[in-house]
């Protein structure tokens, strides 16, 4: 019985064949459940209209198992529209109550990904959600005037005879003028230069090394973005550890700064990679074979086979994850707006600046089936050829596994320490030399416990990533010093107990998750974000069906930048928002 329970949980987690027992109904808009993810306002004052808006796509995805991609010609904002900030709005409606499967979606312009998102759970009366994202940093692609540029939305799903729901998706872009009002909660710091560049991306004649100094901060807009994506322009589907996706790129020799931005999501057997016990445990206990790779995954990026950066992804819990009742109507961190990850390639420009093709390879260490990954290479151009030298040293890594188990009870601990330090020298045509040193420390700790004959699963995980960038001139004087610190703790417990009657169990669940990020310049914090989630609840489960569920979800969000602060606190009880307070008081 107990072993069965564990298998049940593993099945719940790994096969995702959860079906809802709700009925088919198509109800009016007013009754539709409105889902949302906590974030700070992207527009300071909702009364201030955008300078202009463009509706890019209206499409109804019907059978998304055969037709996952929808592509139209991209419509840029009118050239007369004055703007400094672009906000992408993705709205979706689902009219069916049956599909409990989470679907992942992405939005691309000219194969450059702008948003990775996932679907909300359907409810009896249908559901509705809207995602807004500041996409200003993609300005070079947003302003493209080439009328054959593609605009694509992909919605990937499992579909079968029982899942007849349709997704209606509308995507728009709203453009706001920075100068028209104070923009207190901009997610972009110091981007005035970026704004100037916005409108004339191909004429960079006036740019010299002066710009190289002032423009370093991460969120200034790149002059060019090169997609590192699948053949058809979309995500790479990575099936296993040896599945290496390669793209050839040849970059402009005027490049003085490059950042690779990765979009990553895990699905199928890999959706709950952080809750995976090692092979030895699953084998000895005769559990579902091949599904016990342990809880370490890392996305590796190489240039011509040389490792240049890695990402240990932050778990994103989809809307039917762990306990579906948790995520109604407030979803988990990143469910609607997946984080993307930056790898600074500036110190590695010496590997790329020779007018030749270079191979950028992406793979998932210990990865199984499947991961959806792609990348955007953001490139900043100077006015003349840049010479670059790299002192290449591969990142170092230490991994420690500590496994101990007897029968179904056990403790599995993994600790990974990854550190890298790269120094690159770039010299502009004018002879100025700038040295960029990027050091990064990644720390991953995953402690997984199976107790009480495997009926109690406890996870305690922490991911920490600290990046330092130091820029110096030819005489060794500091020009800039940036530091980014991110911490992502996650605690999950799942306790399964038999209920009266055959095959029925109660499953008690908790999820405590945090996202904490800060960005500082010369030790002054320019931007900080703190998002806490605390959910507790239980479900009554029969086989693979959830019969009923109850939940409490508390979330706190705090954001601060050079212009102001924003905080919001939301409490949800059994799917009803019982408290929702926000203010703009700064907490020291
Ligand atoms: C959802 O809407 C589509 C199109 O309007 C309709 O064909 C379909 O029957 C609806 N599905 C349900 C479950 O109501
Ligand atoms: C939802 O719509 C269906 C038919 O469209 C209707 O029969 C049903 O009563 C509605 N449900 C509720 C709870 O109003
Ligand atoms: C989407 O629908 C709206 C309202 O019907 C329409 O004004 C708009 O042109 C449509 N957009 C596209 C891209 O078809
Ligand atoms: C969706 O496509 C699949 C695969 O072609 C097919 O088996 C299924 O019947 C289709 N479902 C609907 C509702 O059309
Ligand atoms: C898939 O969608 C495209 C429009 O994006 C449509 O032209 C095509 O007929 C669809 N194919 C199938 C098999 O439904
Ligand atoms: C999309 O646009 C159409 C036409 O304007 C509208 O009828 C529909 O309600 C919109 N859907 C969503 C999800 O906003
Ligand atoms: C669906 O709509 C009906 C009618 O407004 C309402 O009574 C019912 O509670 C709604 N169901 C859900 C799950 O929100
Ligand atoms: C695209 O632009 C070219 C040149 O400006 C023009 O000839 C062509 O008709 C345009 N195509 C579309 C679909 O607007
Ligand atoms: C659809 O639902 C029926 C009844 O619950 C079930 O017997 C059948 O296996 C399901 N089909 C699929 C493809 O899941
Ligand atoms: C890994 O996945 C690729 C792509 O699906 C496949 O061709 C290859 O056979 C797989 N390798 C292993 C060892 O499973
Ligand atoms: C990349 O370039 C290499 C050598 O230049 C070539 O052999 C390879 O086929 C190219 N790969 C792709 C995917 O274009
Ligand atoms: C989470 O919330 C529960 C009550 O719902 C509380 O007992 C617990 O201490 C909270 N945990 C954290 C880490 O805040």
TrEMBL record:
RNA-binding among keywords: no
Protein name according to UniProt: Peptide-N4-(N-acetyl-beta-glucosaminyl)asparagine amidase A
Lineage of producing organism: Eukaryota, Viridiplantae, Streptophyta, Embryophyta, Tracheophyta
Pfam families: PNGaseA (PF12222)
Signal peptide: 1-23
Keywords in alphabetical order: Signal
Ranges for domain Peptide N-acetyl-beta-D-glucosaminyl asparaginase amidase A N-terminal: 47-386
């Amino acid at each position: 019985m107990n072993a069965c329970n564990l298998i049940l949980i593993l099945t719940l987690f790994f096969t995702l064949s959860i079906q809802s027992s709700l009925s088919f109904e198509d109800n009016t808009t007013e009754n539709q459940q409105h889902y949302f993810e906590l974030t700070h306002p992207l527009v300071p004052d909702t009364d201030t209209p955008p300078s202009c808006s463009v509706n890019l796509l209206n499409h109804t995805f019907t059978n998304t198992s055969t037709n996952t991609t929808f592509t139209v010609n991209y419509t840029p904002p009118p050239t007369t529209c004055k703007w400094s900030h672009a906000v992408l709005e993705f709205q979706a409606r689902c009219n069916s109550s049956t599909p409990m499967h989470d679907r992942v979606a992405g939005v691309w312009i000219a194969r450059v990904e702008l948003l990775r998102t996932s679907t909300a759970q359907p409810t009896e009366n249908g559901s509705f959600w809207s995602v807004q994202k500041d996409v200003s940093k993609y300005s070079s692609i947003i302003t493209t005037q080439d009328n054959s540029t593609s605009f694509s939305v992909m919605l990937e799903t499992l579909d079968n005879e029982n899942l007849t729901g349709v997704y209606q998706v509308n995507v728009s872009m709203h453009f706001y003028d920075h100068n028209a009002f104070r923009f207190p909660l901009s997610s972009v710091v110091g981007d005035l230069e970026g704004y100037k560049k916005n409108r004339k991306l191909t004429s960079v004649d006036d740019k010299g090394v002066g710009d190289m100094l002032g423009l370093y901060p991460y969120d200034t807009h790149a002059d060019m973005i090169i997609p590192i994506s699948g053949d058809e322009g979309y995500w790479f589907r990575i099936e296993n550890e040896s599945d290496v996706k390669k793209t050839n790129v040849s970059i402009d020799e005027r490049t003085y700064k490059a950042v690779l931005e990765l979009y990553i999501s895990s699905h199928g057997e890999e959706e709950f990679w952080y809750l995976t016990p090692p092979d030895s445990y699953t084998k000895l206990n005769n559990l579902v074979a091949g599904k016990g790779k342990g809880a370490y995954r890392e996305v590796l990026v190489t240039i011509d086979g040389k490792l240049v950066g890695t990402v240990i992804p932050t778990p994103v819990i989809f809307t039917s994850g762990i306990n579906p009742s948790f995520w109604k109507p407030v979803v988990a961190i990143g469910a609607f707006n997946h984080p993307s990850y930056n790898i600074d390639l500036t110190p590695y420009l010496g590997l790329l600046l020779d007018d030749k093709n270079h191979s950028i390879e992406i793979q998932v260490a210990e990865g199984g089936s499947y991961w959806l990954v792609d990348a955007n290479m953001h490139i900043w151009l100077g006015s003349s050829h840049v010479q670059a030298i790299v002192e290449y040293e591969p990142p170092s890594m230490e991994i420690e596994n500590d496994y101990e188990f007897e029968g179904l009870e056990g403790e599995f601990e993994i600790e990974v320490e990854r550190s890298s330090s790269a120094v690159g020298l770039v010299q502009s045509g004018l002879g100025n030399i700038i040295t960029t040193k990027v050091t990064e420390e990644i720390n991953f700790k995953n402690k997984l416990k199976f107790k009480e004959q495997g009926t109690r699963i406890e996870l305690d995980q922490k991911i920490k990533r600290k990046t330092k960038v130091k820029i110096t001139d030819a005489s060794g004087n500091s020009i800039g010093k940036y530091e980014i610190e991110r911490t992502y703790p996650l605690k999950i417990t799942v306790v399964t107990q038999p209920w009266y009657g055959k095959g029925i169990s109660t499953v008690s669940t908790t999820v405590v998750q945090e996202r904490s990020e800060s960005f500082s310049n010369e030790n002054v914090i320019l931007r900080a974000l703190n998002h806490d989630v605390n959910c507790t609840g239980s479900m009554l489960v029969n086989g693979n069906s959830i019969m009923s569920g109850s939940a409490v979800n508390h979330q706190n969000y705090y954001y601060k930048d050079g212009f102001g602060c924003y905080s919001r606190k939301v409490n949800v009880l059994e799917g009803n928002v019982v408290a929702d307070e926000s203010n703009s008081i700064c907490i020291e």
